[in-house]
Design a protein that fits this description.
Elements: H1 3-9, H2 13-52, H3 58-63, H4 92-96, H5 111-130, H6 134-156, H7 161-176, H8 183-208, H9 215-228, H10 233-254, H11 266-291
Amino acid sequence: MNVAAFFATFPVALPIFALLLGLIIGSFLNVMIYRLPIMMQREWTQQCHEFLELEENAEAAASQSVFNLASPASHCPHCQHEITAMENIPVLSFLLQGGKCKQCRGKISLRYPLVEAATGLLSMLVVLGFGFTWLSLSVLILTWSLIALSMIDFDHQLLPDDICLPLLWLGLIVNYFGLLVPLDAAVIGAIAGYLILWCVYWAFKLLTGKEGMGQGDFKLLAALGAWMGWQALPQIILLSAFVGSIVGISLILFRGQDKNIPIPFGPYLAGAGFIALLWGEQISQAYNSLLM
């Protein structure tokens, strides 16, 4: 019995497998979310030194020790205890250890198991919607990328090209084979997605003298347009703007946040894109039924 036949015979096995896979990927995403911005900052610093022909001091040179997604090994931020495989089981290790480091009992952030759990649950939703197909695998990669982008933007107000640009090209490749939308709709979606926010950016800047969003937002919407076509862009923009407005107003009213402090828009674009991908048609039908 091959894999496809197994999942066809035992349909409940596919979402369970997706959940477990998502938990494992979520653990890796936690590493990426933390390390990728640091890796980028180190690279920018090195490039600036080379461009300006500056000599690195001993402290700067020491900071350039090997640091990537694989090295050094994960460790406790409090006592530097290297986390073993048994201490790194997604969600389960956090629960068994009471949310604390096994060595020093320092508190572990709740965000780590939440990212793992969210990745697992969203992965399960994807396979329930698309089944055991190549499209499902592609959408899983999109989903995991959107989670990483959302968290990095939330932390640093940064949407790395290292994720956004491959995501855009992957969307075009997926639609070259017509898995979601025709290729022409995907190409127009990528162009329109970028230009729409580019125009909004410059209109806002000319009117206020301030930058209303980062250029990473242009690239993320372009990537979503490449995946879902230009037809999905209005829904994505409306959903993200609606949720972003509610969150922004709530932060100002209930938490007293300064209205001049920028709020990352990437998480709302990513969330709107995921919703539009899985339930966009149902949302459109519900909206049209209300108008009729």
